[in-house]
Each structure stands twice: as C-alpha cells, then as structure tokens.
Amino acid sequence: xxxxxxxxxxxxPSDKAYRVKDDYGLYLDIRPTGKKVWxxxxxxxGKENILTFGEYPVVSxxxxxxxxxxARKMIVGGKDPAVLRDIEKTQSNAPVFADIALExxxxxxxxxxxxxxxxxxxxxxxxxxxxxLGNIPPDEITAPLILNVLRRLEGRGTLExxxxxxxxxxxxxxxxxxxxxxxxxxxxxxxxxxxxxxERHFASITDTKQLGGLLRAIDSYTGxxxxxxxxxMQAYTFVRxxxxxxxxWAELLLENDKKEWRxxxxxxxxxxxxxxxxxxxxxxxxxxxxxxxGHGRYIFPSARTCSGSRPMxxxxxxAALRAMGYSNEEMTAHGFRHTASTLLxxxxxxxxxxxxxxLAHIDSNxxxxxxxxxxxxxxxxxxxxxxxxxxxxxxxx
Length: 397
Description:
Helix content is 50%, strand content 10%. With 397 residues, the chain is α+β, with helices and mostly antiparallel strands. The chain has three domains: 5-91, 2-Layer Sandwich (Double Stranded RNA Binding Domain); 97-190, DNA polymerase, domain 1 (Orthogonal Bundle); 208-396, hpI Integrase, Chain A. A hairpin with a 5-residue loop joins strand 2 and strand 3. Helix 5 crosses helix 6. The longest helix is centred in the middle third of the chain and has 20 residues, at 159-178.
C-alpha cells in the first residue's frame, strides 16, 4: 500500500531499524537515531541490490518516487541504477545546507549529555529547517529566505520556537564557515527581525501558608515512594529537576563530616561542578533511598527498570503534583527553585551571592563573577540547614 506524508511523519524510531514500505520496491528505513532514509530494493541479473535516495524530509515522498521511477526505467533498459547514483554524485559535488546540518547534528549528538535537548534540536532541524532550506547550497541562502522560514513559526504564535530555530540555523552556518563550506552566516542579519518572546516564569508557591500545605501534601502522597522522596528532596535542595532525577549514588559524599552531593559539570546547565551541602533532612532522605535503589546507578530510578539503570521520567514529578491537585499555573517541579530564591532573599539572613551560588547561577556581570568566584561553602552549609529547618517549621507549625 502506498505511503502518505502523515504516515511517514508518524513513524517513530524503535530499538531496531525497521522498514515502512511504499510501492515498487521503495521503502523508508526508520533508524533508532530517528533518521528516515529512502531506499529501494531491485534485482539485476537475479541479484538483489539496494539503492539509497537520501533522508526524509530533505528528500520528500514525491521526490523519492521520482527517483524510484527513474531507477525502474534504467532497469527496464538493462542498466544498473547504481550508475545513475554515481552520475549524480559526479555532477554535483557542491554541498547543500542539509549536508552541513546533518553533519552538525551528528557532531552535537556525540557531544550532548542531555537526551531531551538533543531530541529537541534534531526535531527542529528535521521539521522546521531541512524541508525549506535543505536542498539549497549554503551561499545561496539569504537572510530573507531564512526569515520566510521563521515567519511560518511566528505566524502560528510559536515565538519561542522561531527564536530557537533562528539560533540553530546560525550555529549550523557557523559550523559551515568553520569547515570551509559556507562563506558567512546570513542569520546574523536578522537580529531584531522577530517578535520578542515574553519572559516566562515557572509557576511557584511563595506564600508560606500555602507552601506548608504543599509540603504536607507531598508527605501524604500515596503514589510511588521514589517520586514522593524525590519531591521532598526537590524542596530541600532546590536543584534543577533534571539534575535531581539523574542523581547517581557515586555523586554523594556521606562518609565524612561534610555531607554533600557533588553534581558533575557535564550535568549542569552552566557546565561547572555544583556542590549541594546536605542538611540532616536531605541526608536522611538519601539514606532512606538506599534500601530502594542502592543497588543501582540512579538514586531515583525509573519505575520501568528493576536494575536502576535508568533515571525516573522527566514527567514523574509534574504528574505527582497534578495528582495532588496542583495545576501547571500553581506549581511546577522547577518552581521549588523560585520558591527558595524568593524566601531566602526575603529572610534577610543570607548574602545574595551565597543564594545565587547555591542556585548554580552565573553572575551576568562577568567581571563581578570573576571576583566573586568563591564557593561560599561554609555559609551555604549553614543556609541549607536553615532552609530545611524552615520548611519543617512551615510543614508542622
């Protein structure tokens, strides 16, 4: 049965490569990486051969069928379609934008430590960039041409996506310049051309009475013990949710007087090691988790694996908050960071630099950041214990 574009877009990668068939030997090879490659089976002199036409969506369904039909004509004439492929390569050695984009994507795939970020970048390249710019030589792509691509997203009201796609196009062009396949980055000429994105803040609770209610609700959560403990830890440590769910036993130092959790640089947004001094309450939570996940790699493992070889889902904490009756406009997992920042500052007890360092923020004033490079660990240890005691007061008071 003939394929449709809707079926192709809906084909999801699996653990193993598989085929989605069209007509007359044409099929789409769906690979675990997410790549969708057009291929064709054919026979010459009783021998099976495979011809590759390129990646979807750079090569559309219509274009793939045209290539298939050309190949079938050659077969009828007694010629091997592989000859056609070699001729096409000889005729056009000049790179197109897709060549640079796919190579850049492969490079980032190896470098990125965030599966979520890697997936988002690849999806934007394949969905929003390659179908419109992929077959064009890089030096023929102009700023107005890029703007037309971005205006499609802007017109849908997806302003943040438009800005992110603009950034990705710029990074691909700069990679092309660095590798000698593009003369310049025309996306630079579009600064200020898109509508500004309104700053979004993660929903959080800063009213102390409401916060006490939330903490009691978490303690009473009857779902997964792992998720409940993770939410309690999120409140005490206010790290980023991704850092929490990917916490590993190897990162904890619980054997000496200075109990701490050292998050490696590659897991941090700012790419620098982050030390989380552990309050007595946080230490007790980690000790409690030893009986549950101490045999595995991750402290808060996925419910789908008994071995603890995978971290919990990035949706687990949010789903628990929703189950407790907190909407997305009331509280998010990331909101614990804003809660801590607000209440610690309002207390008047702690230096701004101490709070910001514990939040793993980098000072926007780079000169000031250089002179304030101290870790403030003694003050941070005191602050983290005060914060844990303060939350317990709100919870039980």
